[in-house]
Amino acid sequence: MLILFALLLAGVVAVLVVYVLQQREHNRRLLRVEALKGHLAAVTAAAADPELGRLWAGRPDAGDAEVRAQLLAAVRLTALELQWLTGEFSTRTLERAAADLLATEAGRRHWELVREERGEATDDIRRRAFHESFESAFRTARAPTPA
Q1: How many angstroms separate the Cα of 125 from the Cα of each of 18, 118, 132?
Q2: Are 63 and 112 in contact (CB under 8 A)?
Q3: 52 Cβ partners below 8 Å, 6+ apart?
Q4: Predicted structure pTM score
Q5: Are the C-beta atoms of residues 131 and 139 closer than 8 Å to each other?
Q6: Measured between alpha carbons, how far is 59 from 125 in angstroms, rounded to an integer?
Q7: How far is CA 76 from the centre of its chain?
Q8: Helix/strand/coil for 79
Q9: Residue 59, SS3?
Q10: DSSP annotation of 1
Q11: pLDDT(66) > 60
Q12: How many CA atoms lie within 13 A of 116 on its CB side?
């Protein structure tokens, strides 16, 4: 009887531990989504103010067209990441979206500016997969075309 009670207690503890771990991961994802929404709001504010836009784009000497292109790429990249993290995209859809964004010169310039910092922030499997999809598309986009 004592053994049965010990097994039951161990089962209850195991269930509670799994529940706490799942809740922790869920809360992390919610925080990431909120952070990405804040990022979008900041980029939107930068789009309304040319000086702030140049600062946000990391190119203080850039012209207005370059700043707009960088801000648009930043918004698109963040929106893609948000959709990926919330499960709206399949891997194939993400790969196509990455290829489409990095097919443009502005998209490649933006990824070149942020790729190292984003690579350091890949602390879970989904974010790592997102980064790797963009890295793969970036390498493909930069590869010289055969003559």
Answers
A1: 19, 14, 10
A2: no
A3: 45, 46
A4: 0.66
A5: no
A6: 31
A7: 10
A8: helix
A9: coil
A10: -
A11: yes
A12: 3
